[in-house]
Amino acid sequence: MATLNVLILVCLAYVVLLFGVAFAADRMAAAGRGAWLRSPLIYTLSLSIYCTAWTFYGAVGNAARSGLEFVTIYLGPTLVMVSWWWGLRKLVRVGRSQRVTSIADLISSRYGKSNTLAICVTILAVLGGTPYIALQLQSITLSFSIFAEADPSGLYREGSSVFWVAAGLAVFAILFGTRNLDANERHHGVVTAIALESVVKLFALLAVGAFVVWGVAGGVGPMMDRIDASEIGQWHVDAGRWTTFIFLSAAAFICLPRMFQVMVVENADEGHLRTAAWAFPLYLLLMSLFVVPIAVVGLDLMPEGSNPDLFVLTVPLSQGNDWLAMLSFIGGFSSATSMVIVTAMALSTMVSNHLVMPIWLSTQEGSGSVSGDVRNVVLMARRVSIAVIMALGFFYYRLSGGGAALASIGLVAFAGISQILPALVGGLFWRGATRTGALVGLTVGFLLWIYTLLLPGMGGTLISDSVLQNGPFAWGWLRPQALFGIEGMDPMVHTVMWSLSLNTVAFCVASLLSFPSPLERLQGAQFVNVFDHSVAPRGWTGSVAQSEDLMIMTQRILGAGPAQDFFQAEVEQQGGRSNLPEPTPAFLERLERELSGSVGAATAHAMIGQIVGGSSVSVEDLLAVADESAQMLEYSSQLEVKSAELSRTARQLREANTKLTQISEQKDSFLSQVSHELRTPMTSIRAFSEIMRDTDGLSAEEQTRYAAIIHDEALRLTRLLDDLLDLSVLESGQVSLNVGGDTLRSVLDRAVSSALAGTGQTLTVRRSKASERIPLQTDLDRLGQVFINLISNAQKYCDAEEPELTISAHDVGGQVVIDFADNGSGIPPEARSMVFEKFARVGVDKAGGAGLGLAICREIMQRLGGEITYLPGQGGAAFRVRLPLAYRQAAQ
Amino acid sequence: MSRKVLLIEDEPNIAEAIRFLLTREGWQVQTHGEGADALQVIQGASPDLVILDVMLPGKSGMEILRDLRELEDLQGLPVLMLTARGQSRDREMAENAGVSRFMTKPFSNTEMLTAVRDLHAQATQS
Predict the structure, then answer these.
(1) What distance in Å separates the CA atoms of residue A262 and residue A269, rounded to the nearest whole number?
(2) What ipTM score was computed for the predicted complex, to two decimals?
(3) Exposure winner among A170, A359, A421, A857, fewest CB in 10 A?
(4) Cα distance from N-terminal residue to C-terminal residue, chain A
(5) What number is the average pLDDT over the span A447-467?
(6) B108, part of any domain
(7) Does residue B63 lie in a domain region?
(8) DSSP state letter for A886
(9) Chain A residues whose beta carbon lies within 8 Å of the beta carbon of residue B60
């Protein structure tokens, strides 16, 4: 009898072999050799991680308990492969063209890169995956314990062995599952190793089966007789359970993270599906071929009460065929380990990409450079995730006590993970599917699964018996295992029916009711019409002919010198066999990195993809390229804005300079005018005062006359100074207004009498006093000053024989308009624009004004919130004064 | 011998003061208060001396002087220019235009008389 220690040694040797195979495969793939690594055979074999220890051992147990029902677990995937391979091809095409890394990534990508959705799927997958991992650990422990019972002297300790198995698997998954981070996420080492394990488990099961049929039963004929005699042979087809289980296993085959990993992510060529479509069902057929014979013989041979789940081991052992038992053990071990490794890899990718990285990135915000060692962070996150997932599986196993509850976990997990199906299939075939729909559907299905299957399955610990019996709050229609009062159903059938149908309904309804974002629409179109605009992706390798194109492209981007240096260095690194380097994946990766420094990562990837043709350009790539172009456009438009700003500033400076020059000229001209106005009267005063002082014998008449001139000129000076001060106060805005109320009529009365006082009264003023009864609320003195000025001007400048001034007033919408028109020859058109300027005088100023009067009027009217304008077309000189009836502060 | 001065000045009071001073000195004083036709008046009056204000209505004294110096027979005519603007730029302009003497208002009567005497003496000597 083989001792347990030998078993452990064989086991270790097997593990070392697996490590070796994985290592060698990785090396070969990295070197660009080993085309068989990407063969349809390896792909098909890798798909067989569908058959876990649960299938390896459990199928026989299932057959022993429930007859042929175990077949459903094989029928589901077979149906998918045979009748829905075109759907799988779409899935694979989408997965490759969108460069998805996991099923969570695919769902998130389809629904507008929603991370919420990715997190939901990840949590669902981890919840479903953890008990499944525990189940595999249990199978390894159980199988060990069979040998331990037979050999008590062995080194076997149950608790520690599970720990070491879990740790070993974690190390394997970390070593080969997180080796590289390339965008395709393919792991040749792992895939090759699990393909080997698939061969081993099939071989082991077939060997046990052959032994049972020919070694124990004595040939096919007697075996058939035994089966017919056994209960298992009776076809007990419960239509509900069969349909449910076939559907469930089919759904799980598509949705399980580990299946997605090998089927889509690790797929090297979608043509492989064609082979897998017949080869994988064949594999399943072979796997199931001897299940019934082993079960029948086991039931016959083994004592009552022995665990039928372990017949695969115990039957050979009981017949003394230890080596066969050991082979069978290795087969079961293979099933368990391959499943655990791929599951851990797939889950860790999801956990690190959708849970850890978003959190890490958000903590990095603001600290500047994120680009530096993201790669290391991602790898570390994956490694830690693998360890954590393995630890979860381990603790779940320890806490559940490894009891029979685990055995049913397989189907429970299937039911949970199947909740992804509506969102996945809907996303592939229905453009109207939206993020909201997917979220609502998933949530509904997920909650129903927990409520109707997971919680009741855990016994009275998490959900009380009264709830189970009578529903929550004694609402009978909410009883977890009889929703809406439909009783008597198998719990599994009940759950699958309700959760998936309500999930689908919720998904469809919410999709119809919600509006997708533009990105969702775009992604939806990309997914649903994936065959219209993508070529079948091949590997990311190319021929030397493509190297020339790559060289030309690189020269364009990097410049001739650096491009040649880069390619030369590559040639030397590859051994220098030709002028141009082989486009190996490693070289292409380095080239992409080199180019991305110049044109951005997405553009570089898209450009190389165009030439090597291995990968179609995904929407994500296009969007990223668009982003980069947008950034450049943004940058260049910023430059344009800057340059526009600069020229605007320059123009403003020029304008300011011109204005300053103008102001300076105006000031000079003003000063020179003031000087003139001051010096002129002073000249007369000085001349006549000197004459009076120095001249003897001036007549009394002359003396009086000259003194009068001096007096007049002195008054003129005073007037000028008064005007200047007045104007300066008005212009500086420091004038304080003295607002009072009176009628226009009395203001005009005072102005007319004041303006005409002391003069010869040659001017006739015509007024229509009735229209002047307009009440005013303003600075009456200032307004009067304006009127006086206008009347005086008419008096001074009106050149008619009988000078007349007509004053007419009327109010229009809160404003009063007063026109002053004389009957003289008026102001020549070319002078009209400047009459309001300072020192502007038209013709000879016989009246001796300084030319400030109208300038002051203009300033006053501005202060009063009105205006004074020249009124053309009136025959003589005419001015229009307009002001608000009531002065408002805001009018300033 | 009658000395004739033409006074072109638009300020009547200043014109009257200068007329008073020069008349007592023995000058025959003719006044004119408009710039536009000043040159024709000068040509018509053929004075021994012209006193010209800068700020005149119609045409500035500066322009009148420039036009006057263009005329061959008037190139030697002594011109005393008066300005009230008091800017050094005016003096330069006037000298470039060929002024004989430049004076800023207000001036002392002695200053005025001295200038007139000097200008007349120079003119009669040459």
Answers:
(1) 12
(2) 0.94
(3) A359
(4) 114
(5) 68
(6) yes
(7) yes
(8) B
(9) none
Percentage with pLDDT > 90 across chain A: 5
Instruction: Estimate to the nearest angstrom the gap between the alpha carbon of A150 and the chain centroid.
Output: 60
Closest CA to A250 of A88, A452, A102: A88
pLDDT confidence tier of residue A892, bands split at 50, 70 and 90: very low
Mean pLDDT of the A564-573 span: 81
Q: How many CB pairs under 8 A join A and B?
A: 65
Residues with Cβ within 8 Å of A732's Cβ and at least 6 positions away in sequence, in order, are none
Q: Tens of pLDDT along A37-89?
A: 778 888 888 888 888 877 788 888 878 777 777 888 888 888 888 888 788 88
Q: What tokens appear for B124 in the block? A: 């009669």
**List of chain A residues whose C-beta atoms are within 8 Å of the C-beta of residue B87:** 672, 675
Of A135-149, A245-259, A446-460, which gets the smallest average pLDDT? A446-460
State how far the Cα of A642 lies from the Cα of A795, in Å rounded to an integer. Answer: 60
* Angstrom distance (rounded) from CA B46 to CA B41: 8
Does the beta carbon of B18 lie under 8 angstroms from any beta carbon of chain A? yes
- Please report the pLDDT score of residue A426 as a whole number: 86
User: What pLDDT does A535 receive?
Assistant: 45
DSSP-based three-state secondary structure for A815:
strand
Instruction: Give the span between the Cα atoms of B111 and A281, in whole angstroms.
Output: 132
- Chain A interface, Cβ < 8 Å to B: 672, 675-676, 679-688, 690-691, 694-695, 709, 712-713, 843-844
CA distance A851 to A524: 81
Q: Cβ–Cβ contacts within 10 Å for residue A260, how many?
A: 29
Angle CA A817–A818–A821, to nearest 5:
135
Tell me the three-class secondary structure of A727-780, residue by residue: HHHHHHCCCCCCEEEEEHHHHHHHHHHHHHCCCCCCCEEEECHHHHCCEEEEEH
Which tokens belong to A260? 């997605």
A407 residue type, one letter: A
All structural domains of chain A, each given as residue ranges with its CATH number in brackets, are 4-26+37-362+379-528 (1.20.1730.10), 544-613 (no CATH), 624-715 (1.10.287.130), 736-891 (3.30.565.10)
Range of the domain at B106: 3-118
Looking at this protein, which amino acid is placed at residue A281? P
| β-bridge mates for residue A867, sequence order | A882
